[in-house]
Write a structure and sequence with these properties.
Layout lengths: L25 H21 L5 H13 L8 H7 L3 H12 L2 H4 L8 H37 L4 E6 L2 E7 H22 L22 H12 L13 H27 L7 E2 L16 H22 L9 H31 L1 E2 L1 H9 L7 H8 L5 H18 L3 H8 L18 H13 L2
Antiparallel strand pairs: 1-2, 3-4
Length: 442
Amino acid sequence: MAASVFDSLHLSKLFQTGDLAALFTDSAEMRALLLVEGALAKVQGELGVIPEISGAFLHRAAMEVQIDPAGLAEATAQNGVSIPAFVAALRKTLEAPEHAQYLHWGATSQDIIDTALMLRLKRAFTHILSTLKRQLNIIAELSEQHSETILPARTWGQHATPTSFGALTATWGRPLLALYNEMDARKDAGFWVSLSGAAGTSSALGPKAAQIRAGLAEALGLHNPAYSWHNDRTPVTTLAAWATRLTNTLAKMGADLAELTMTDLGEVQLGGAGGSSTMPQKQNPVGAGAIMALAAHVTALNSVLQGAAAHKQQRDGAAWISEWLTLPQLVLGTGAALVHAERLASDLSPNSERMKANIESGQGMIFAEALSFALADHMPRPEAQNKTKELCTTALKTGKNLAQVAAEAYPEVELGEVFNMSAQLGAAPQEARAFAAAVRAL
């Protein structure tokens, strides 16, 4: 098995991440580092911190040159960070020492790496947000179309009361919608520029340090926090926590579908279900299982990353390295879960006849709550609950339907609507349609 399922030749299609994978490669990182160094030089040149001609040269050159990441390996192993070797390689490649001497002026390794990371994370989360919006529209369509498709609601794996399939899909979608709105509101301020120098004091950047940081943020389209966040990992941990919540919300949909497609229930059919090597009858809910596995993986990674937020003193190499080990996998895991979720929602087919049959197979017990309230119109509520329990016991012993047992015991009580599936949906149809309307209002 490969070190990462996302890089495995035979597992990669099971964990597809769309366009996200390209953002977490060595070449993508080198390109982002070049963009940051070039933009920094241009801003410093415009402000007169370095010669303007050198700033313009370095900015233009950063757009054109390439750095071989493999060539940085030896020095990175020694230094624990790639920027010293990166800057040396870039200066050598430029072959213009009169300008190259101003490269990386006043910055520290963490400034460049964190800012380059934020450039890639902004693109990654923009992609995730776009995919999430498509997912919301698919779920909204399901919710509206099946707002009155009767489904047995289950608690602790047992029949509870009737609901609708559209109401169930709306419960998948509501937290996704909240997550979408949360990230949409944060997208302009959630990705920070970093420029504070060796110990966060900006001393080597000179008196125009604040202006340089603001200019760099504007040039790169990043938020300027106006302070050093070397040891404040809030922007990273906030994004990771959001991605983890998203992945676990998708896993709820996966868990429901894994249950609903079970042979005993058969209430939903999934397109493209997987087969077994020895059992030809099987249609395995592979996508649902993959989402649940990815959610567990992302949650574990997030635990490491959140714990790594405790940076000692001004900067902490070990805590910082922990982010490199976890964050890319966490983002890719989130992207892969979204890919599976979109496929599942697009290809599923609810079996309304099977849903009704499953309700009917339960001897009408799913209507017990409604029956207790109907009886409460004729006796105190506690007594009505006890009588309903007795009626359920009788039904189970005799094999009769609860409706028949109740009618025999209380012929004077009008029970027609009590055992009417459609009449017992409550607010389920309205909630399904309300969710669909909320998505369309985006």
